[in-house]
User: What shape does this take?
Amino acid sequence: MEHNLDGTATQAAAVHTVATVVEQSQMATDTFRMRLRCPEIARRIVPGQFFMIREPNVSDPLLGRPFALFDVYEQEDGEPAGVDIGYLVLGKMTRRMAGWQAGREVEVWGPLGNGFPVSNVRHLMMVAGGIGQTPFLAVAREALGLRQYGRPPRACSRRPEQITLCYGVRTAAFLAGVEEFERLGVEVRLATDDGSRGHHGFVTELLEQTIDRGDLPDVIYCCGPEPMMKAASDIARRHNLPCWLSLETPMACGIGACFSCVVKVRVGEGEWDYRRACVDGPIFRADQIML
Ligand SMILES: Cc1cc2nc3c(=O)[nH]c(=O)nc-3n(C[C@H](O)[C@H](O)[C@H](O)COP(=O)(O)OP(=O)(O)OC[C@H]3O[C@@H](n4cnc5c(N)ncnc54)[C@H](O)[C@@H]3O)c2cc1C
Ligand code: FES
Assistant: This one.
């Protein structure tokens, strides 16, 4: 297992394979869950890693698109059979994906990127904005000891006493997967921009409220739009809390070849350099990334 710049681990080698769509269901407005049968990737992938999906024999869109692991599903004997993704319809590819029926074959390569570190803390705080909740279901399952991911399987040495998900969207109709988190025993705190559910305002205000009421997390994992991640890392810095960000930088190859995904990272006192989010990330320590 290799370690990148940030001390997080790069897991098993990626494979390029053909996956079959098993089923799709709608989770929220413009938001779908798709199950793909791809045992080779399911066996290797860990929470926070992603894979690229491409429609074969189609030139527009030509490039694959990155999607985070939402969860691994298992076949009857308990062996990993495939992956679930949760996706928001945004442009060309995701619009096409929403029309894919069971049985369709698609190109998939992964697992890619480094993944979140295993949490091993008392209170794990996850902060998600928009479709940024998708990596956190598997993070929570792993932390609670409900499932092991990766090859060799990663193990948690300490179960959290508390896992909180602060989750914000524009309006309640976009909330996707809340019940699944609640079923795991995750404390879910919601925010909407228009006040249609939960806190009326930014999800980072919820994070601040949680900290202000004395409920200090040991670590913060964060995924969502850049301004939200910047606000979350500012809060983490003020309270001296470790914080990891999962970047959603657009990617063309996912394997480190095209440099379309470079981000600026601090590499020393007053110094910075570029890193490729697809191979050195997408998870970075908040104090290293320059947002
Ligand atoms: C590591 C990683 C994991 C991801 N996981 C998920 C996931 O689990 N679920 C999910 O729904 N999405 C996820 N995304 C984002 C997803 O890859 C994009 O939404 C998708 O590529 C859009 O493709 P499209 O062809 O539908 O849109 P396009 O036609 O390519 O783009 C439509 C519009 O959206 C903008 N856009 C495209 N990609 C992004 C982006 N990453 N961030 C902001 N704006 C963008 C474009 O500039 C354009 O304006 C992830 C991205 C990364 C890098
Ligand atoms: S997406 Fe090609 S180098 Fe990162």
About this structure: Residues 50, 61, 65-68, 85-88, 90-94, 131, 134, 248-251, 282 surround flavin-adenine dinucleotide (ligand 1) (CB under 6 Å). The CA atoms of residues 244 and 285 lie 5 Å apart. The radius of gyration is 18 Å.
